[in-house]
Design a protein that fits this description.
The complex is a heterodimer of chains A (114) and B (304). Chain A has 114 residues and is mainly α. Chain A has six helices and one strand. Chain B has a five-stranded antiparallel β-sheet with strand order 7-5-11-10-9. Classes of the chains: A mainly alpha (114), B alpha+beta (304).
Chain lengths: 114, 304
């Protein structure tokens, strides 16, 4: 038996809580029809804000929901060394360029403390 | 030299917009700056738990020579774990304000940190960045203009380009950013095309860099950019070309009456306005108005 889909995981979680689609809507502002489309797989890649909201409501792993929805290749681990940096730049950077900029900013922080 | 807006940011979904707007309003309330203009964004950042705000100016001279060349293209950054913002303060004041507000939204939205974790820049990472960048841009607008508070003023005047342009300095924002927010959040049908100032690929049209529309414009007319799929006519004999040429020398945005078919095929009388800020051309379109009184304004409420 294959892995559960995103929709199946969310539906199972909602069912466990005893909430109806409308109950979830009242608590989260996620329209019940929209949530139904996510649970039935008509929408397979909902926005991350929605996934976060449901992860919080149902006590699920948000990184795992990102993976199931195709937003990420694999879920990060809590001790992950991966860097969480939002860069707003004029143009796109490759991996090396991005790392150089992050290293520079980190250096700026440590120099400021000296 | 002005740097243009960063590459790609996706328009947030209605759900995301609602969440971000509520978060932005809560941040303003928590910082005690709701109703203060220009919004003191650094106070909002402090209330959000941002620990440090760095600029290249903080850099000791001895290290300055080792700046990576790519740092020049970085407007700002937010380091989630360190709760640190980096800002390029060589931008104009309105651009610094926007970037500060943009990074504050990254700090405020709890789903952003996980979204920007990476172990290599790949297509999935780029798509996640487009989504959170779009939300941060949207939220920045709410921190700067504060939703209903901006529209209490803006809706006292007629729907036209001159209205947001006149309000820009009060909010500390650029005129283009103010026009963008005005159109995007307006309760009435309004659309804005942001055009390049130079002809496109040798043809007699201006390229559309961005199309912004109010929800009600989209419901009534669909996409305005689709009606100019080949670009906006620039020749002086065309309606748009003549209007844009006038805008280059006018003090106040010139306007012209036009007709636009709605999605039911019915022709609607509209007014088109133009403005040139020396970098981009703005073209705004709205149906001719009757005076509307007794508007209800909705302020985003705090998150649940």
């Amino acid at each position: 038996m294959g892995e559960q889909t995103l929709g199946e995981v969310l539906r199972a979680a909602r069912t466990r809580t005893g909430m109806t689609l409308r109950d979830v809507e009242k608590r989260t502002d996620i329209h019940n029809a929209h949530l139904s489309q996510v649970e039935t797989g008509k929408i397979t890649r909902p926005e991350m804000a929605l996934l976060w909201t449901l992860a919080d409501l149902y006590e699920l792993s948000y990184p795992e929901l990102l993976r199931l929805s195709g937003h990420a290749n694999r879920a990060t681990q809590p001790e992950s060394q991966q860097v969480g940096v939002a860069l707003r730049a004029m143009d796109e950077m490759d991996t090396e360029q991005r790392q150089q900029v992050i290293d520079f900013i980190e250096q700026l922080r440590s120099r400021r403390r000296e | 030299m002005s740097r243009h807006a960063p590459a790609r940011a996706r328009t947030p979904t209605p759900f995301s917009k609602g969440q971000v707007a509520r978060i932005a309003e809560a941040a303003l309330q928590d910082a005690g700056v709701a109703g203060h203009f220009p919004t003191p964004i650094e106070e909002v950042q402090r209330a959000l738990g941002v620990r440090e705000r760095l600029t290249v100016a903080d850099l000791p001279d001895a290290v300055a020579v080792k700046k990576p060349s790519r740092i020049k293209s970085v407007f700002g950054a937010y380091l989630h774990k360190e709760r640190t913002i980096f800002i390029d303060t060589s931008q104009t004041e309105p651009q610094v304000l926007f970037t500060d507000a943009h990074e504050a939204i990254h700090a405020a939205c709890p789903w952003h940190e996980e979204a920007v974790r990476w172990d290599g820049v790949d297509e999935l990472f780029r798509r996640r960045m487009e989504e959170v960048e779009g939300e941060a841009n949207y939220g920045a607008g709410h921190l700067i203009f504060q939703g209903g508070r901006f529209f209490r003023e803006a809706l006292q005047d007629r729907v036209c380009l001159a209205t947001p342009l006149a309000l820009a300095s009060r909010y500390g924002a650029s005129r283009a950013a103010t026009a963008h927010y005005y159109v995007e959040e307006h309760p009435d049908p309004v659309a804005l095309l942001v055009l390049g100032r130079y002809l496109h690929l040798g043809r007699n049209v201006f390229p559309i860099w961005r199309c912004v529309q109010s929800e009600s414009f989209t419901e009534r007319f669909g996409s305005l950019a689709d009606r100019y799929a080949s670009g906006v006519p620039a020749d002086a004999d065309s309606v748009t070309g003549g209007l844009l040429a006038d805008a280059h020398s006018a003090i106040d945005p010139p306007e012209v009456s036009v007709t636009l078919a709605d999605l039911n095929g019915k022709d609607r009388k509209c007014v088109m306005h133009a403005f040139f800020n020396q970098y981009v051309q703005l073209l705004m379109l709205a149906p001719q108005q009757r005076v509307a009184e007794g508007r209800r304004l909705h302020l985003a409420s705090a998150p649940r």
